Structures are given as C-alpha cells and as structure tokens.
Amino acid sequence: MSKTFSKDDNSVVVIVGSGAGGGTLADELTREGVDVVILEAGKHHTQEDFENDEWAMFAKISWLDKRISAGGWHHTETYPNLPAWIVKGVGGSTMHWSGLALRFMAHEFKTLSTYGKVPGANVLDWPISYEELAPYYEIAERKMGVAGTKASGLPPMPPNNHYKVIEAGARKIGYKDIVRPVASNTRPNDGRPACQQIGYCMQGCKIGAKWSTLYSEIPRAMKTGHAELRPQSMVLRIEHDSSGKATGVLYADKDGNQHLQKARVVCVAGNSIESPRLLLNSASSMFPNGLANSSGQVGRNYMNHTTAAALTINPGPVYMYRGFDIAAVVSDEVPNNPDRGFMGGYHLEGLALHLPFAAAFMKPGGWGREVSSALEKFDHMSCVWVCGEDLAQEENSITLHATEKDQHGLPIPIVTKTDHTNDAAMRRHGLAQWRKLSEAVGATRVIDMPPYPASHNMGTNRMSEKASDGVVNKWGQTHDIKNLFVSDGSQFTSSGAANPTLTIVALAIRQAEYIAGAMRRREL
Amino acid sequence: MNDDQHQSPPAQGMRVPEKRIAVSRRAFLKGSGLAAAGVTALSAGSLMVPAREALAASFTHLGPGVGKTLLVMARDIFPHDKISDRFYMLAIEPYDAAAAKDPALAKLIGDGIAQLDALATAQFGKPYAEVPTETERLTLLYTIEHGAFFQKIKGDMVTGFYNNKAVWPLFGEEGSSWEKGGYVDRGFDDLDWLPKA
C-alpha cells in the first residue's frame, strides 16, 4: 500500500537515493512511523530484468552519466570517463555489490590517534568509536542476513572451488584469519530464498538470495504506508530558507520536468560522487561554496580503497565463477603493522570474474599472446581483489567541471585521485602476498591487474568532531544545517580495509534512530 | 581438445566440461561449406577451416580485401590457435554494415589499412595480410598500436570476440546458470586436485 505525498507536504523526510544508505534509512524511519519520500535518479528494475550476463547488466544498471577521471591514478588512462563503477537504479549499488559484509576494526575509527599525523594525508579520527557502532553492526548483520554471523544465525556460506583453492594457499603461507561473512541467505530467510550458487552476484542476484534494498528495505518501507518511491527523479539542488534551513529539493522527472518537493528533513544518500556534487550544485547567495561547506571539506578527502587485482593460473581447473562471487577472504593483513612499510591494512578478497570481464580487466589496453594465452586458462583461474585502507587526502576530490554540463544542465563531476606513497606500498605488498599464496598451491602464472573502476567511494562529506574538519557530525547531520543529513559512505572519515556496505547500513540504522527521536522531540 | 589433459593432474571427481562447441548441422554446413551429414557436435580443432576469402566475401561494402585484412588483424590481436576464423569473423563483420552508415568509421578503417599495408609493403614487399609469419606481422602492428585505427579494432575485439557466447565453451566458461538452478548441484564445490592438508 504505497502512499502518495503532496509536493507541498513539508512534513516529510526526503531521502535522495535508495541504495544501502537511503534504502535502509527509509526502512528504519517508516518503522518509526515517519513519512518519507524517496527520490531515486535511476529506473526501477526488478529481478525479472536481471541477466546472468556481465556486459548486459553493466549496460543496464551502471551509472553511465559522464564523469571525468583526473589526477595521478591509473584511471585517467584506463577508464577516463568511468572513474567509478556504481549503479543508477532503485536499490542503488546494493544490486551490484559483492555481498561481502565486513566490519571495520576498532583502530580504523581512530586513524589519527593510531597512525599519528601522516605527511601528505589528511587523516582524522571518526567522532564515533567501534564500541558505539558495534550494536548497529549487529542489527545490520541480522537485517541483511550475513551468513556465518551470530547476529543472523545463518550458517556460513559453503566453500566453493574458488574458496578452497585460495584457502589452501593462504594456510600454506601461514595465514589463519580466513573469513567469508557474506549477506546472502544460506537458508530461506526474511522472505527471500537460499543461495543456489548461481554466481553472477554482481549482476544483480536473480533469485534475491543476496541482500539488496531493491527487494528488502524498499518494499518493506512501502508496505508501512509511510513511504513513496519516485524513480527516475534526479535531484538537482537542495533549497533553503532565509534562516539557512533546508526546505525541500528541486528534481527532474524522467521527462525532464522539474518539481519542488518540500521537506522537513533532507537526507542525501547518492553515493560519494553525487552527494557532494549535489551539495556543491546547491550553492546560493547565502552559501556561495555549496551547502554545508563552511569547512571547505565538501567533495574533499575522496577515498576509494587502495586496490589492485590479480588473476592466477592454477595447476588444475577451478571454475571460479561457480557459486557465490566472493570466495575466501584473508584478513590477516588488516591489523595495523607499520613494519610492513605502510599504515593501515588490507584484505585479500577472492572475487570471481567471468570470461568477458576477465578479458576486459586483466590488462586494459593489452593484446597479443600475453593476453590470449592467459585467457585460454580461464577455467584454471582464481582471482583476488586487494581491498586496503586509502588515506584521506584533501586534494583527492569531487569537483564541478567549469564548462561541461550534463543532460540536466548541471556541471559534470571531476573525480580526482592520486595515490599516497602509503597506497603504493600497500598495493605492492598485497600483490606480492597474493603471488606467494598462489604459488603455494602450484600456480604457474600470476597476472597483476590494475585497479577496477572504483566501486567503493567514500569520504567526500566526512564526519568530524569539529565543524572545521569535516561536513557532518557523529549522526551524519551536517554541521551547518540542522535538518540536512548525509546518509551514505561519503560520511566515512576513514576508509578502513572493509567493504563499505555493512558500515553504511549500520550508520543509517543509527541515524534513523536519531532522526526519529529528534523529530519526536521537535528538535527537527 | 581438452588441454587440461596435458598440464593438469587428473580431475577424477570434478565436472570438467569439454572445451568444444556444439554446432547444429545447419549452422555447421553454413559455416564450413562441408557436407558433413549427421555431425552435430565437433571439437573446435576439427572444424574445417573455410577459406578466408570465402568468409571475407561477406564484406560487401568495404570489400573482401578489407574483410580479410581485419580478419588477420583480429587473429593477431587475440591469437587462439584452436579457434577457427569464423569466430573472429563474427567479431569484425559488423564493421561492414556500420561503415556503410558511418563515413568516419569507413575512413578510419580505410586509412588505417592503407597505412598498415604501406608499412608492410615497405618492409616485406607485400600487404599486411599476405605477410606470412605472425612475428613479422606483429612488428607492423607494434608500429601502429597507439593509433586510433588499431585502438578501435582492439577495443571492439574485447567484447566482440570474448563476449560472444559461442566461443565461451572453448574457454571453459559455462555462462548463464540461473535457469539451470545454479551450481548448487552442479559442481560448485567439486575441486579435487588440491593436496590434502
């Protein structure tokens, strides 16, 4: 029983985006009886639309509006107009996400205290601790059905071939902390079926075993009668009154017609490129540098994890794509150990590719027998993705193009990223460890790959204790505008070494509790 | 054609699909020009290779010469000795119709081949597609690999060739699985060659 709200209804909470942050927030707020309008830029796909086809789904669900890669990173060459690989559609990137639900470690919330001042970086402690977030991690793991966790009670995901070959190599070189907390049902749960080891998890789970707000949180919010979902509604700017309070949002519908939706509270959850872009595009005479930007940190400190990937040719067949896309995840390198030559740590995450993506990402631009001879052993391959801490740097940023505009007339975003020396050292270490792990089980060839377009985008509206250091406080509430919140990964003060989704969900649950309480107390 | 038997320990328990392509008789006849009645499945290596000229004849707009040159180039870019020409042809034949509608593309291909053939003639006394060894042809391709023509053909080949479902079996890629119930009962956990811990 979906509800319709008037555009003049200024009692609603407007949520911009319907992914891990926005979708969760909608679910949690409507549970508390709060009315929400969800504005989603992309289309409303259903599982009917999902295909076991990498390129077909890439074309169908990716955010392909033009963006520019800038700075010193590899993407300026390899993916000049695709800095990030995220989704435009209801459910956002929870359609594409791998399902890996890792928690941050305690020290990753306290990077400045742990690492000290790092030259060239802008590291800062979060205004919250692991202990404060832990209860929300529990709720998130239960909500999402993270297999193998106490919170969900779901059994672990059964090992597939890809898991076994990585685990064996990891143990041989002395690794012990091998995990696989994945948000996919290992038995029917929450109205969704058990995983059938289909693979193609990142192309949208065909049966809905893997958690996504598309078929979990969004429909649940709609059923309460407190939510309206408007797909293909691109928010162009956030409006405010003369007191500086947010009053609503201006958005364009699928035909390009513009509408103003009034709001009591505005929550921005458009991922770490669109969220700061929206705040910057909302500049006004009162806020000439963009909304909530008194610190100058909106769009700054862009992080997308220190990543690398590699394909290994094993002595026997693996068929890495059979079964859940995430294989064994090695966590031994996550603790901070500066003796390795870098701050922070990383995960080695087994992550399966099918042949078309293996061909596309193995050596972008590469050709000849170096490439084709490796691909002839596709069935013998295992594949790792290194996911490590990316230190915040002010110059890594989302900025607006001076002249080039998108289909709505808004400046297109420039995504600038340059490695810190810490990133480069960590990447080398991760790839070297993967090589050792692979050779321990008899690998005949290991091919290092450059980073993929970034799927983990973080930090561009970061949390801070002091208003001068960041954009939002410990509730995700902007320091400058009381009824304006940020509800996605752009809140992250540090990137940690964990895939961000679980933390985004935990923060959104906690934020919803705060917003609902503040509304009841009439503070908002 | 299963190359695992040469380099891999025997995989007794694993479900190892044969690396071959099932071909319907009709498609086979059409593709090969052979009257091989009753043959329904063939390993790739045993497919009779039709003459390049016959395949290139499908280039009615750009002409068979261009078709043949692109075919040789496609093979040199991603060489798989066990895969027959017709799968490479599938990747490049869309250029003929596209170039008919897109003069810029036609010019890119025309100029690109003219440059490549000029280099080949200067160095080896014959056009690129007639240069007999891969090693010699590669020296020519290295000369042009950063140019727009080569980049275009190579870039399109990544999807035009490797995203063609017809070649997937030759790589051990099993493709869409949801309609088969996934791999829960089809070998997601049947790896058997690891030494016991």
UniProtKB/TrEMBL annotation, chain A:
Question: What molecular function does GO assign, one term?
Answer: oxidoreductase activity, acting on CH-OH group of donors
Keyword Oxidoreductase in record: yes
Q: What is this protein called?
A: GMC family oxidoreductase
Instruction: Indicate the transmembrane segments per the record.
Output: none
User: Domain Glucose-methanol-choline oxidoreductase C-terminal spans what residues?
Assistant: 393-508
The source's superkingdom equals Bacteria
- A Pfam family matched by this chain, by name? GMC_oxred_C
Q: Give residue ranges for domain Glucose-methanol-choline oxidoreductase N-terminal.
A: 89-306
Q: Which family does it belong to?
A: Belongs to the GMC oxidoreductase family.
